[in-house]
Design goal:
single chain, mainly alpha, DNA polymerase, domain 1, hpI Integrase, Chain A, 3 domains, three-stranded antiparallel beta sheet, two-stranded antiparallel ribbon, 18 helices, 6% strand
Length: 441
């Protein structure tokens, strides 16, 4: 049978001998022709199919199954053999349909971790123990980094300057990337008959609990500089004092920070709030958009989950703050005239351009650094809103919907531990129960 030329343009034929009878030879010939037909007029694909047919005949192997070949051609997978982890991940990342920020995260996981450690393993031979060994190697590397940072040798410290250990949350996200890629390989029938090994192991990722900046903790922090937890929460009084400070010293950012602290918006949601979705007459805003920064460019996109698309009801004080800001923004626009850009966003800088989410975080850190307020992250204003709402007795289902959580479980597990008055009420209730059983004298 005449095959398409080789990649170098040389003529070739497919020859198979040793068949039992003429009928068998006819079946083989028709099978080979059908395989070439699957490649259509794509010259590259026809060359690859011809390579595959030649290889199977030379190795005295059965011709490839047409369904499997059709699937591989459709997904752009290697035709000769099951791909390695590296081969599949390289193909997968070029085709996976996610937003640019997520794609960038996937790419970093592939390049820095998955391909260097697991890339040589044939995809359908990847097992849980391979992934467990991979995680152990990361931990060994983490310890090496920590030892180098603590080394008395300046050259050793310089070698790891700016290098940080890979934390539990990142390890969990790396495993999620591998699980996603492997599931896609199963769905596209690149491999079959195996269980996703990344689904069979657990990577510890304890979620840090918010800790309230109580007066005793603030005094300890001022004496030692130590912050009790990665996630810290201001009390309502401290939050009020900070917002009063920003109203005088950061008037442009004050309304955005106020909305985050009172209603728990994420940074990207606040920066991406659309003017058309702010209905102050109804005391509502709708979260249907968020702003993210990627590669030095800003990009608007929908919230990541359906739970993130929500209506947020505003209190009268927040309505007053946003109404005053709208009047101030109108004055900026009038002054700028035709130079005012039409971003469609509610919160903008004085020149009408969008706030960069990272710039807002940096400005927030500077505001805290210039004062005596105990440090928190910008995202912790969201935690403030949640804990204050729970402490005020708002139903946890309402708080969960306000925050855009998909379930109340996350809300309960993350925040309820810091609502101290609930535990005090429970302790008092137990004491009253004991008191009621005391015999009268």
């Amino acid at each position: 049978m005449e095959l398409p030329p080789t990649g170098e343009g040389r003529r070739r034929q497919l020859r198979r001998s040793g068949l039992a009878d003429r009928a068998g030879a006819v079946r083989e010939l028709e099978h080979a022709r059908a395989a070439l037909t699957l490649a259509g007029r794509d010259r590259v694909a026809r060359t690859q199919v011809a390579d595959l047919l030649q290889t199977t005949v030379r190795c005295a192997l059965p011709l490839p199954a047409l369904d499997d070949l059709r699937s591989r051609l459709r997904t752009g997978s290697p035709l000769i053999g099951v791909p390695t982890v590296a081969e599949w991940l390289t193909t997968w990342i070029a085709r996976v349909k996610v937003d640019p920020v997520t794609a960038r995260t996937y790419q970093s996981h592939l390049q820095a971790h998955l391909i260097p450690h697991l890339g040589d393993i044939v995809l359908d031979r990847l097992r849980p123990h391979h992934i467990e060994q991979f995680v152990e190697q990361i931990e060994v590397r983490n310890q090496d980094i920590r030892d180098a940072h603590a080394s008395p040798d300046a050259a050793v410290r310089a070698a790891v300057r700016g290098v940080r250990p890979t934390g539990p949350a990142t390890i969990a996200r790396i495993r999620s990337t591998l699980r996603k890629a492997f599931n896609d390989a199963l769905a596209k029938e690149i491999i079959a008959g195996v269980v996703n090994p990344a689904s069979l192991i657990k990577t510890p990722n304890p979620r840090p609990k918010p800790v309230v900046w109580e007066p005793e903790r603030i005094a300890r922090w001022r004496a030692t500089g130590r912050i009790p937890s990665p996630v810290m929460v201001w009390t309502p009084q401290t939050t009020r004092e900070f917002l009063n400070h920003t109203s005088e010293h950061a008037a442009d950012l004050h309304p955005l920070l106020h909305l985050m602290a009172y209603r728990g918006l994420r940074r990207g949601e606040a920066c991406g709030l659309l003017t058309a979705e702010v209905r102050l007459e109804c005391s509502e805003v709708s979260i249907v958009n968020q702003l993210s920064a990627y590669g030095g460019r800003q990009r608007q996109k929908a919230p990541k989950s359906t739970a993130g698309i929500r209506d947020v009801v505003l209190d009268s004080e927040t309505v007053a703050v946003l109404r005053a800001y709208r009047a101030r923004r109108a004055a900026w626009q009038l002054q700028a005239g035709r130079d005012w850009p039409d971003t469609g966003l509610y919160f903008v800088r004085r020149n009408g351009k969008a706030w960069n989410p990272s710039s807002v975080s940096q400005a927030f850190r500077r505001l805290i650094a210039r004062t005596r307020f105990p440090p928190i992250r910008l995202h912790d204003l969201r935690h403030v809103a949640a804990t204050v709402a729970l402490a005020a007795g708002v139903d946890i289902k309402v708080v969960s919907e306000q925050l855009g959580h998909s379930t109340t479980t996350l809300t309960r597990d993350t925040y309820q531990s810091v609502v101290k008055h609930l535990h005090h009420d429970a302790a008092d209730a137990v004491a009253r129960a004991f008191s009621s059983t005391r015999p009268s004298t």
